[in-house]
Write a structure and sequence with these properties.
Helix content of chain A: 40-55%
Strand content of chain A: 15-25%
Oligomer: heterodimer
Shape of chain A: globular
Distance between the termini of chain B: 39 Å
Mean pLDDT of chain B: 86
Distance between the termini of chain A: 4 Å
Strand order of the largest sheet of chain B: 1-2
Order of helices and strands of chain A: EEEEHEEHEHHHHEHEHEEHHHHH
Strand content of chain B: under 5%
Radius of gyration of chain A: 22 Å
Structural class of chain B: mainly alpha
Number of helices of chain A: 13
Shape of chain B: globular
Chain lengths: 329, 277
Amino acid sequence: MTRTIIQTENMSFTYPDGTSALNNINIEIKEGERVAIVGSNGAGKSTLFAHFNGINQPTSGLIKIDGKPAVYEKKELLQIRQKVGIVFQNPDDQLFAPTVVEDVAFGPMNLGLSDDEVDERVEEALKMVGMSGLEKRAPHHLSGGQKKRVAIAGILAMRPEIMVLDEPTTGLDPKGVEQVMEILYMLNKEDMSIIIASHDVEMVTKFADKIFVLHDGQIIGQGTPEEIFNDYETLKKAHLKPPKSAELLYMLKSNGVPCDVKLTVEGAYHEIIHVMGVKAFHNILHLVKNQLHHRLLHELGAENYHKMLHIIEEEQTNNDKNKNHELND
Amino acid sequence: MNGVGSVRELEKQTDKESPLHSMDGRIKLILLIFIIVYAVFSTQIIVMIILEIYLLLLIYISNLSFKTSLFRVLILLPFGGFIIAFQPFIHPGNIIWTGPFLGITITDAGLMWAALLMSRLIVSLTSIVLLSSISPMQEVVESFRKLGMPREFAMILSLMIRFLFMFYDELHRISHAQKARCFDAFNKKLSYKWRMKQLGYTVAMMFLRAYEQGETIYMSMASRGFSDKSKLYHDKKKKIGSKEYAFIAITLGLVACLQILAMFLFHQWGFVGINIA
């Protein structure tokens, strides 16, 4: 059975000026999970994250890290902060040292490690994010993507069990997004739990095993990406937009076409073939200029193409099931 | 050259490759401060001339442009030059010129003293310009740290260096946003008061952003376990090698020779060798 690493019980937080930021938060995150917290601006995502490693203390309720209630004493806080690493949204908020190496070494130095151990961890962390060789570089000479990777390395060097990232892909170009996501997948493969906050629904759909919808400081929905993005009312309430493929199927559904909402492009195509037939689907492929699927449809023929979509969907379902089994074992 | 440009330009200089650029920061720092201290205590202009020649030679070895380096010395010169300009008029000595008004006089001792001060100032500024051109700012702070600067002070300096560039960028962005809406601080068609008000807003905005940035930075530091006991990292791999020992030997040898010559020979060399003290 997978252990619970972060758990909150009726956790609330009010800022000293009286602004209520979080209200009765009850969440449970298990070891090795990939979790996304989605919500509009000002929903309370960053405030919630600040609770995960003891920067903020709940005004009421409880947060348990690795099964133990958080204790806000110096020694215990250091342990929590070693266990839960936070990567801030804007890397300039995090990179404060004049060189990359000094910044990455900052966390391990605070843990009181020996100089050799610090050097080893810095080297390892920079290698993991593909930034070796840029140790002496000043942060203002790095690109946005590089800054983000150095910020991640700064946390990795502390060898946390849980990595929390606030909007990890904001402001990055597609290549930068890909590099950051690759790092996150690699870390998760090594059993690190990853928690992200994001507006990027396409990315969240692919990445997360579990999604929490935060709105006005409250959790208004939680579940798998399929469950969350099929709940149109919750998304609307949280001012969120579903992925493009799901949005298209919503539109068909709301216009009386009896279809289910799918999160992947292949899933959406499959659903359209079922509800509208091959001819209409062929016209759609022309309209959206999807050359790959158009060619596959012509080369394989309608029947075989349809079979292929079935196979893709079955494989996807099997993968999801395996993932869930692994988490529950 | 505006503020942002000059800081970036200075960074480019420190990125160059030369035997002096690659040397241990502590050695560069100690020796160039040593030259400044020696210049301040020397009382013969010839000593300053030889030290200046040595510094110019180091500038040449460092692949730095003479034009840029001397220009930077020239920019800094007025800060001390203002005090020096008064010396010929206020120092007691033999009057060599009397002004037509207010009994202004110039004395020979005052003139000599001003010449000595000016030569000291030039040597000191050349040393500073050389040090800042061959050592990145972070290396200078790291050297101070290795030489025992208190942790808190070193951290403040480290943060200052990091955020100096960030706030220059921020200022640049604000200035771009203003220019995009046709604001020009030197546009005389606009009222002076209004222009000053906009510049005031810019400064206020910078303070506000610095304050907010400070808050978030502290949060990010705390989330990585920062406390009053935290130590700062510095690279211990860099060792002092033959290059550093050669630089120490040449500089100390030169200063020792100059001191001996100052005591036994230079006083015979007329004006440049006179002991002005």
